[in-house]
Amino acid sequence: MTQIVDPAKNLKAVLDDISMAAQSVDHDPENVKLVAVSKVHDEERIRPVLEAGQRIFGENRVQEAMGKWPQLREGFSDIELHLIGPLQSNKVKEAVATFDVIETVDRPKIAHALAKEFERTDRHLECYVQVNTGEEAQKAGIAPENVDAFIVMCKEELGLNIQGLMCIPPIDEEPALHFALLAEIAGRNGLSGLSMGMSSDYETAIKLGATHVRVGTAIFGSRPAPQA
Ligand SMILES: *Cc1c(COP(=O)(O)O)cnc(C)c1O
User: Fold this and answer.
1) Residue pLDDT, tens place only, 101-140
2) Is the CB of 37 under 6 A from ligand 1?
3) Is the CB of residue 39 below 6 angstroms from any atom belonging to ligand 1?
4) Buried b (16+ CB within 10 A) or exposed e, 156-188
5) Could you tell me if the CB of 217 is within 6 A of ligand 1?
6) pLDDT, tens digit, for every residue of 47-60?
7) Average pLDDT of the chain to the nearest whole number
8) What's the CA-to-centroid distance between 23 and ligand 1, angstroms?
């Protein structure tokens, strides 16, 4: 079963959809950034998207990103690589060296470890707090009732550069409810960044104020199965 995928063509279609969704709610499409989620895919599949002009990419595993991105970055000075998966304490060093933005600040321990590494390296990466909007036991993120205090701790106690919030809605629920909740939490905390929306729901997310949508499958095609 060979699937023919043209990632550069898909990229263009996704960017057009983003523009239309933004315009439909009178938002400037320039303010909605596409994070092209290249996890699992190899360099051969990613390169055409880079060459088509896309510069912001998302990866969910530190090790995998360290293996692929040094080569892909060659010749491009303006790539912005986002970590969108859970970060383990023993990978913080590598993560800070490999990524430009950390979207998954999801617990105090990681917030502390990042703050320490930013200090040590003088690399103060932009961060997002991941919110577990569905309060799912198996999912990472800060519970909605604890987010306000967590943001204050990150900003004031640790000096993290918190740009906004990120969420992954439960698969069996209406994503719009979660996007609206994330926007409300960001608003009351004075945060402008909202990373929400994936291949199946990024237009909904944009209509609810997303500043970053994380789109993988709609650009790169389906991923091989074994991953959770
Ligand atoms: C894989 C992943 C995406 C992209 O999902 P698609 O459905 O392939 O667009 C977005 N966000 C996170 C956190 C992911 O892990």
Assistant:
1) 999 999 999 999 999 999 999 999 999 999 999 999 999 9
2) yes
3) yes
4) eebebebbbbbbbbbeeeebeebbbbbbebbee
5) yes
6) 999 999 999 999 99
7) 96
8) 24
- pLDDT tens digits for range 181-202: 999 999 999 999 999 999 999 9
What is the identity of the amino acid at 197?
G
Whole-model pTM above 0.85?
yes
Alpha carbons within 13 angstroms on the beta-carbon side of residue 152 total: 5
Phi, psi of 38 (to 5 degrees): -100, 10
